[in-house]
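question for whoever is on the cluster today: can someone run the full assembly for these? two chains, 535 residues total. i dont have access anymore since they changed the login thing
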Amino acid sequence: MLNYDLVVVGGGPAGMAAALKAKECGVEKIIILERAQTLGGILEQCIHTGFGLHYFGEELSGPEYADRFIVEVEKTDIDVKCDTMVLDISECNLVTAVNKIDGFLKIQAKAVVLAMGCRERPRGALEMAGTRASGIMTAGTAQKYVNLDGYMPGKKVVILGSGDIGLIMARRMTLEGAEVKVVCEIMPYSGGLTRNIVQCLDDFGIPLRLSTTVIETHGTQRLEGVTIAKVDDRLQPIPGTEEYIECDTLMLSVGLIPENELTKNVGIAIDRVTNGAVVDEMRQTDHQGIFACGNVLHVHDLVDYVTLESQLAGQGAAEYILGTAPKETVYVNTVTGNGVRYLVPQRVNVKNPNDVKLYFRVGRIFKNARVVLECDGKTISSKKKVKLAPGEMENVVIPADVLAAMDENSSITVRVEE
Amino acid sequence: MKRDLTCVACPLGCAITVEYDETGVLSVTGNTCKRGDAYARSEIVNPTRSLATSVKVNGGIYPVVPVKSNKPIPKSMIFDCMKAINSVTVEAPVKLGQVIIPNILGTGADIVATNHD
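^ ran it for u. tokens below:
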């Protein structure tokens, strides 16, 4: 059995930032366990630019953003095992993993950072009629085929879902010579960034059909076409609006699900809205010594925020390992008010001496609204926002002096005021 | 002539209408700030885009390596640049930042690798 101070599960942007921060804080023995062949996570296949604007003040491609951290990890004595799959984490932080070289591995950790990322919602989650013809895949799978494996998965493409991955793939396929016929979005608004709608769809004349979904796929061997239809305000297809579109490829960009099998096995409490662990301001779960950060905690739109969040988790893990965490814990739950779909962290230790930033998403689009932070019935801040959209994560800060005045009966609420 | 644009200067995404003729931009309406005005004018006069794609590589870990233009290129030349990039095969090892095609099609932008092979 191996002994480490900190085991980081996942070597993407979250895992690397957490490990580096823990190292910087003075943790000695750290190991990163990564399922893929290399560090970098999903960034390796995100070859478009736009990463790092907040964190580095530069527009980097995904691999470039990842490389900044890979280089830093290589400079330290952090151990890395790639091609290694973590199978289980026990209640006493014993990590079980396998790989081809070591075989079966048991690693006793003082603390664990969960940074497994997320995966895409597959076709099976959509209740879509039709056969199992080839040519139906998630947008991320198509992205891997094109950007890593170097081949085109199709020529005539329909994309279902207007999240950023779908939009990015619409442009990518067009650049490589495919015809993207339409992007369908079941909601009345796109979940993607405005910039991506303009530069990935409008630039190439690709139509975006809102309140529209794919109701059936056609073809037996290879996909031959799809039937799309308008939906009503309960998202049900409207009879008579069906339309057949010939295509050989259907890409799905219909949401991401944090990959929390390991988390659930430990018995860690999961937030029903984020599908990630319930955490405090240092991203510690309700299981002492186990932290979570990045897309396994909640799905982010910008990797820059993943990095910042993971540094917090790394610092939290370091303080836990080194015994420098606040001795007293008095938790106050954060409460979602009007318009707020979720808040991370879900609880705050008010004995934490620092400002605490709450990240949140709204449930629908708001224009000219205010984001109000209320603690113990008093308005702490009320910030004007020209626009709030579900696709863009927002944040609000609880100042340290407000926290210092709180106790176990206190309340923290974030709401949107129209 | 008239063109409708969605502004990308900030997340608000104003619907902007630009009127223009061969002499240049006549009017910009629908924007709510100065940045929107500047964006709309540049979209008519000289629209540019960053290009990110991949190039074939021999003997690397993967059959392709990602590349990008190190500065924006004219929007009208995107597909010509794609053709030029897709006609090239590089030999491994490729290093991040390595110039694959200097000054592509005279645009002044270099195509550089954004990962190691």
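summary bc i know u wont read the tokens: Helices of chain A lie at 13-24, 62-75, 139-147, 164-175, 194-201, 261-266, 303-322, 400-404. Residues 303-322 of chain A form the longest helix (20 residues).
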